[in-house]
Amino acid sequence: MGMQQEIIEALGVKPSIDADEEIAARVEFLKNHVTSSRATGLLIAISGGLDSAAAAGLCKRATDELTQETGMDYMTLGVFQPYGEQEDIEHSYETARSLGLAHTVETNIEDTVDEIALEVEHGMRSIGQYRHLSIPGKGNVKARARMVMQYALSQELNLLVVGTGHASEAVAGFYTKWGDGAADLMPLGSLTKRQIRQIAVALGIPDSIINKAPTAGLWAGQNDEQELGVSYEDNCDYLEGKAIDPRVQKRLESYYMKTSHKRNPIPRI
To answer: Would you tell me which CATH number, out of the four given (3.40.50.620, 3.40.50.300, 3.40.1160.10, 3.40.225.10), belongs to the domain 3-107+151-261?
Structure first.
């Protein structure tokens, strides 16, 4: 078996999907975990991009069905988490409106992240390192600060935290372990970016969200495809079992091998 097939099997990706069937299966997955954990609903951070919109749509459908089936109130909480002023924050609100989310909160992470950065820089000075936190380093602090706030909310409200990680990110290790890679449930985990787009269309997500350029929002101007040097078109083709440029394939497989620690449990002796 070649590495491409090994990766596809490890991430559980299908060569093609039926969007309605996948939605039904993933909604059932969410419902089962909510009921088995005796939670009162789901929490999803809505960035204003495609992935979180699709995940939010699945969450809303799951909690609506549970409410209808049991007669109890189940909540999908949408959380908006800008760092200071977020230019596209309206896309987060647009997503929530399009799905009819009744419960949303905004938790601005700017003060928290800036204070952490200052404390880290102070600590580095004590060992002779006189410099600011790097741009990627501060970006990772943003991701982790967002998760701290999500888990604080979920603890108080008895909700399960839903992540937006998916196969097209996992193959490149393109998330922060225990930051935006931390969650209780990953309903998009075995999907490519292309397949998530299919699901978003079927869920009725607005075109303005579906067609946005992919970004993790970790620093100004950050763009997924530019950062990785691999287009999502090639990424999806590879994970769906198609042939791609050998140079791009080598780059993707290199990312996969060097980021295995992000996908695996913490090693123990």
So the answer is: 3.40.50.620
Helices vs strands, H then E, count in the chain: 13, 4
Read off the pLDDT of residues 180-235 as tens digits, 9 standing for 90 and up.
778 999 999 999 999 999 999 999 999 999 988 766 555 565 566 677 788 999 99
Sorted by where each begins, the domain ranges of the chain are 3-107+151-261
Report long-range pairs for 16-21 (Cβ below 8 Å, ≥24 apart): 16/240, 17/191, 17/195, 17/198, 17/199, 19/195, 19/198, 19/199, 19/201, 19/202, 20/202
* Neighbouring-strand partners of residue 192: none
CA–CA separation, 7 vs 263, rounded Å?
12
- DSSP summary character for residue 102: S
H helix or E strand, kind and range, residue 66: helix 50-70
The answer to whether 51 is a known catalytic residue is yes
- Please give the structure tokens belonging to residue 116: 């952490």
Q: Which residues are annotated as a binding site for deamido-NAD(+)?
A: 144, 177, 184, 261-262
Q: Which residues of the chain carry a pLDDT beneath 50? A: none
The catalytic residue among 9, 18, 20, 51 is: 51
Choosing from 169, 180, 224, 234, which is the catalytic residue? 169
Q: Which helix (H) or strand (E) holds 136?
A: helix 135-157
Q: Is 224 assigned a catalytic role?
A: no
Which residues line the annotated binding site for Mg(2+)? 51, 169
How many whole angstroms separate alpha carbon 69 and alpha carbon 16?
31
Residue 199 DSSP one-character state: H
CA torsion through residues 30, 54, 61, 155, sign: positive
